[in-house]
Amino acid sequence: MKSNQIKPSEITDESVYLKRREFLQLTGAASLGATLTGLPDRATAEIKNLNTIASKYSTSQTPNSWKDITTYNNFYEFGLGKDDPERYASSLITDPWKVTISGECDKPGDYLLEDILAPHQLEDRIYRLRCVEAWSMVVPWVGFSLADLLKRFKPNSKAKYVAFKTLHDPMQMPGQRRRVLRWPYREGLTMSEAMHPLTILAVGLYGKTLPNQNGAPLRLVVPWKYGFKSIKSIIEISFSKKQPRTSWEMSAPREYGFYANVNPEVDHPRWSQARERAIGKGLFTAKQPTLMFNGYSDEVASLYSGLDLRRNY
Amino acid sequence: MPKTNTLKLVVLLTCLIPFVLLVLATFELAGQSLGANPVEKLIHELGIWGLRFLLITLAITPLRKLGGPIWLLKLRRMFGLFSFFYILMHFLSYAILDQSLNWPMILEDILKRPYITLGMLALILLTPLAITSTNGWMRRLGKNWKKLHRLIYPIAILGVWHFFWQVKLDTTEALVYALILMTLLGYRVLTSRRIADYWRRRNH
Question: Is A283 within 8 Å of B97 when comparing Cβ atoms?
Answer without folding.
Answer: yes
